[in-house]
Design the sequence.
């Protein structure tokens, strides 16, 4: 199965659909993309824009979801920015916290108000 993402005028993913391998001639990526795009356009209109995405993240950095943005220069799908303070890492094509995640084996979540990682049991005990 192949997966295709429909993009809006700002390259934001509107939807992701599955296309059978038969519809793309059982071709591998990137040969499959123009065939799949033509198929998607036959269903949704010739004016729609589609990009193939990889379910196992073997191309374009990651499998996409609704709200992701396709960057034509990086040829990558970029996830939505999780927090205002996070910084885009162009090499990884992903967002990173301004403070590195602690490397002590514990589980943390980001607290945007303090710009720090908070140990999860602390959050549970506060409730």
Sequence:
């Amino acid at each position: 199965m192949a997966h295709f993402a429909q993009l809006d005028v700002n390259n934001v993913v509107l939807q992701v659909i599955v296309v059978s391998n038969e519809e793309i001639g059982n071709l591998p990526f990137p040969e499959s993309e123009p065939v799949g795009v033509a198929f998607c356009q036959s269903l949704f209109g010739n004016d729609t824009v589609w990009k193939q995405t990889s379910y196992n993240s073997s191309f374009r950095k990651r499998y996409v979801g609704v709200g992701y943005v396709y960057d034509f220069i990086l040829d990558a799908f970029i996830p939505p920015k999780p927090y205002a303070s996070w910084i885009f890492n162009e090499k990884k094509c992903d967002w990173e916290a301004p403070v590195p995640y602690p490397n002590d084996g514990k589980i943390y979540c980001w607290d945007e108000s303090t710009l720090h990682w908070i140990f999860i049991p602390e959050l549970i005990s506060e409730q």
